[in-house]
Amino acid sequence: MSERDERDAGSGAETDILTRDREARYQRMVLNEAWLSLAVISILIGLLSRQGGLAVLGVILIVVSLIARLWNRYALHGVVYRRELSPRRAFIGETVNLTVIAENRKLLPVGWIQLEDEWPEGLPLSTGGEDLHPSAAPEQSVLRNAFSLQWYERVRRYYQIRCDARGYYRLGPVHAVSGDIFGMFRTEHTLPTLNWLVVYPRVVPIEDLGLPPKDPFGEVRAQQRIFEDPSRTIGVRDHQPEDEFRRIHWKATARKQELQVKVYEPTTSFTPVVFLNVATFDKYWLGTIPELHERCITVAASVCHYAAEKRWVVGLIVNGSIPRSDQPIRVLPGRDPGQLTRILEALAAVTPVATQDIATLLERESPKLPWGATLIVVTAHVNEELNSTLLHLRAAGRRLVLISLSREAPDPLVSEEVLTYHLPDAASPYLPVQTSAARQLTPTARRDGILQEWALAAVPAEEGR
């Protein structure tokens, strides 16, 4: 979101309708110039024929026309329009309060003003739904309000928005129409004031997805002593010439009467990076399956939420772009308090349009990530290119986890080398999600250090009914 959009999206953002984008305003006269000509002719005829009534009628029409033109010119001056959202971020199932405010900040009353807000169809109104009207724009409606404002008067309308679907919703721009009190002239203006409402994706416990609650992405402890945690001492050993002075364990040295040094626990910072594949078909340009697309996003959000609760350094990379932009969706690994919020906002903005294949994205982004990072691939399908890329990265020493929501089982060769979870019914709103107690997690015989493989045997749907 740009700085200008963020400023306009604030709860107190307000705009004078005629101080923004004057070129978008134009006037339309209901009574055209022919009526003025008729008024002049009636005056002349009245004077020549000594018909006072006819001349007076022409004069009244000219005076009213001049007053109406002047009134129309200043009808929208000093009129302020704004929206207030509380809150501006919500989860699916929550309700957001919307206040629409129109204010007249001048002595001249506004006889009538009509405001039409562009409104996304994905945000139904639980109250005030009768003000929503169809729009010619695709997937858009119009929130229509009409006001009559006295001098220095402020009017509010209250609505409640149901957040039924994940999304990054834009409210606005607004089209304002007003005119004189006689209805002879009117002024129209398109105001580019935008507000944004972020609806986060659904987050569920990873146990409900079918993932094991303990070490679902492999062992956190390092197998080689490349990094050591000085705060965790696991033993002592004899002193060696290359040991630093600060490693000396003085109490153990005093007991043994020989120099002893501390042995620290070998650890590494666990850095999961979620790679989300937004494509639901093998060829991402063939279309999308909305329900499967949302399930993948729910799995990715739940994994990131779990990592944030563990205070891990977590990141997100998606083979898609930000809406109305060509910028890729990428949240670099971090552990600050706002990291989870940034990830959820990025997932709220995810669209089903893929910009590249997930295998190509893995090959391009993996060299930019820390070597000890765990790459977690969440995808709705697994093709040969992805299998080949996973095996290549595993052979190069990368730590990988594959979470597949496809109906087809993953390639056995990949499952032997990469920690793989097959979750065809995970986070499905139509199929009952089996709890962790109703699933059987069977560890295979092969365990290779960090690598742990699990075969997920879900209870058949017939038995769960």
Write the layout of secondary structure elements.
Blueprint: H1 3-8, E1 15-16, E2 26-29, H2 33-48, H3 52-73, E3 79-86, E4 89-91, E5 95-104, E6 110-120, E7 125-127, E8 132-134, E9 140-149, E10 154-162, E11 167-171, E12 174-179, E13 185-191, E14 195-200, H4 206-209, E15 228-238, H5 250-256, E16 260-266, E17 271-276, H6 290-309, E18 314-321, E19 328-334, H7 339-348, H8 358-365, E20 373-379, H9 384-395, E21 399-404, H10 412-417, E22 419-422, E23 440-448, E24 451-457, H11 461-464
Parallel strand pairs: 4-14, 17-18, 17-20, 20-21, 21-22
Antiparallel strand pairs: 1-3, 2-13, 3-5, 5-10, 6-9, 6-12, 7-10, 8-9, 11-14, 12-13, 15-16, 18-19, 23-24
Helix pairs in contact: 2-3, 6-7, 8-9
Q: What gyration radius follows from the Cα positions, in whole Å?
A: 33 Å
Number of strands: 24
| Secondary-structure-derived class | alpha+beta
**Net shape:** elongated
How many domains is the backbone divided into? Answer: 3
| CATH fold call of the largest domain | Rossmann fold
Q: Report the end-to-end length measured between terminal Cα atoms.
A: 46 Å
Which range best describes the helical content: under 10%, 10-25%, 25-40%, 40-55%, 55-70% or over 70%? 10-25%
CATH architecture of the largest domain: 3-Layer(aba) Sandwich
Low-pLDDT segments, ≥5 res: 1-13, 19-30, 222-227, 430-465
CATH class assignment of the largest domain: Alpha Beta
Please describe the biggest sheet, giving its number of strands, its sense, and whether it closes into a barrel: 6 strands, antiparallel
Mean pLDDT: 80
